[in-house]
């Protein structure tokens, strides 16, 4: 029986830019894209973590805070200096402050919406010109269970992740005529820094596992197949779609 480990995709000659690449889903996806042969542009706040992910792969790491006004300009400049032109973009950077609707401040609201929703658009917009010229590009956004479900203390995060689904459709409408496919992956519960409060509570983690059709939470390796599909020629006639990778959580 085939498993994710059996999937072979070559991304040789491609360059993949991954935000939020210093940990969690971003780090995993960056490593998988590198293993598939892509040159890597890794963006995150922790230089040491980025360099650990980059180790053994061709590419560069860019340590900066994407919430800063000049961050996108900094990423473009670093790519230009290295002679790298991203063909694949994975928008994995994110934040979830887990505040109630009554308690979330305007500053935390703006921070959440900006990093989770505005930055994916601005990063893609910054590099789409090269993709248009090449006639080929892949944009992979990271959605969430909260794109379609309301969770406690998740009003800002849920609003942003709901927006990601529509942003993905709008990117497809704007750019797919140029050979640029825009899709999103909506993970269920995976063990990452962002979901640490869930997995530190065994009862809560087990609750979410029971809410899947498969009876378990995700393993990062479960994301490999969907990632390589969306990053490669295999998805050449698939665009504007959001794929839940959640063990059937949203099927129940």
UniProtKB/TrEMBL annotation:
<keyword id="KW-0560">Oxidoreductase</keyword>
<protein>
    <submittedName>
        <fullName>Gluconate 5-dehydrogenase</fullName>
        <ecNumber>1.1.1.69</ecNumber>
    </submittedName>
</protein>
<dbReference type="InterPro" id="IPR002347">
    <property type="entry name" value="SDR_fam"/>
</dbReference>
<dbReference type="Pfam" id="PF13561">
    <property type="entry name" value="adh_short_C2"/>
</dbReference>
<dbReference type="InterPro" id="IPR020904">
    <property type="entry name" value="Sc_DH/Rdtase_CS"/>
</dbReference>
<dbReference type="GO" id="GO:0008874">
    <property type="term" value="F:gluconate 5-dehydrogenase activity"/>
</dbReference>
<comment type="similarity">
    <text>Belongs to the short-chain dehydrogenases/reductases (SDR) family.</text>
</comment>
<dbReference type="InterPro" id="IPR036291">
    <property type="entry name" value="NAD(P)-bd_dom_sf"/>
</dbReference>
């Amino acid at each position: 029986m085939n498993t994710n480990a059996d999937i072979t995709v070559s991304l040789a000659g491609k360059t993949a830019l991954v935000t939020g690449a210093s940990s969690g889903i971003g780090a995993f996806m960056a490593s998988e894209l590198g293993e598939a042969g892509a040159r890597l542009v890794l963006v995150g706040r922790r230089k040491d973590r980025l360099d650990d992910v980059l180790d053994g792969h061709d590419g560069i790491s860019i340590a900066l805070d994407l919430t800063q006004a000049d961050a996108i300009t900094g990423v473009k400049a670093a790519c230009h200096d290295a002679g790298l032109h991203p063909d694949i973009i994975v928008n994995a950077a994110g934040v979830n402050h887990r505040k109630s609707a009554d308690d979330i401040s305007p500053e935390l609201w703006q921070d959440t919406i900006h990093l989770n929703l505005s930055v994916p658009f601005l990063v893609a917009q910054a590099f789409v010109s090269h993709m248009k010229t090449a006639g080929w590009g892949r944009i992979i956004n990271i959605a969430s269970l909260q794109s379609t479900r309301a969770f406690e203390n998740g009003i800002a995060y849920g609003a942003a992740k709901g927006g990601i689904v529509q942003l993905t459709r709008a990117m497809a409408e704007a750019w797919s005529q140029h050979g640029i496919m825009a899709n999103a992956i909506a993970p269920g519960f995976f063990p990452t820094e962002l979901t640490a409060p869930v997995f530190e509570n065994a009862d809560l983690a087990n609750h979410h596992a029971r809410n899947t059709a498969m009876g378990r939470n995700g393993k990062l390796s479960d994301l490999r197949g969907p990632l390589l599909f969306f990053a490669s020629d295999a998805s050449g006639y698939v665009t504007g779609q959001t794929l839940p990778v959640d063990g059937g959580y949203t099927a129940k």
